[in-house]
Design goal:
By secondary structure, this protein is an alpha+beta fold. 34% of the residues lie in helices and 23% in strands. It has four helices and five strands; from the N terminus they run ββββααβαα. It has a five-stranded mixed sheet with strand order 1-2-5-3-4. The longest helix has 19 residues. It is elongated. The N and C termini lie far apart (73 Å).
């Protein structure tokens, strides 16, 4: 099997992954997963698609993460890994879709409007 590339996005975060056969090493921006995401919850989020298909020890993953916060980056990486696994074996798509890993979360920050302090907040109204 040759390498497989995929991209995942969430909010302002973009994750580009390269998946190849190996022993389960996940490298993010040239750092191990445990160093880049010290939180066990974020590590769990990243590994969810692999755990669903029981392939935690089967593939080596190199990821390039950019933009956003750590939660958005973890979820972007989860989507990228899921897309790469589907490219490797299209039969896995149904299992990953059932868990919700194939859907790009469309929610993003609403833009600030002119004449307002924030996107929806208004300046205080004064009748007099």
């Amino acid at each position: 099997m040759e390498t497989v590339n995929a991209v995942g996005r969430r909010k302002a975060a973009i994750a580009r992954v390269i998946v190849k056969e190996g022993n389960g090493a996940i490298t993010i921006n040239k750092r191990p997963l445990e160093v880049y995401f010290p939180s066990s919850i974020l590590q769990f989020i990243v590994k969810q698609p692999l755990a669903t298909l029981d392939t935690l020890e089967k593939y080596d993953i190199q990821a390039n993460l950019d933009g956003g916060g750590y939660k958005g980056q973890a979820e972007a990486l989860r989507l990228a890994i899921a897309r790469a696994l589907v490219k490797i074996n299209p039969d896995d798509k149904a299992a990953l879709r059932a868990e919700g890993f194939m859907t790009r979360d469309p929610r993003a920050v609403e833009r600030k409007k002119p004449g307002q302090p924030k996107a929806r907040k208004r300046f205080q109204f004064s009748k007099r």
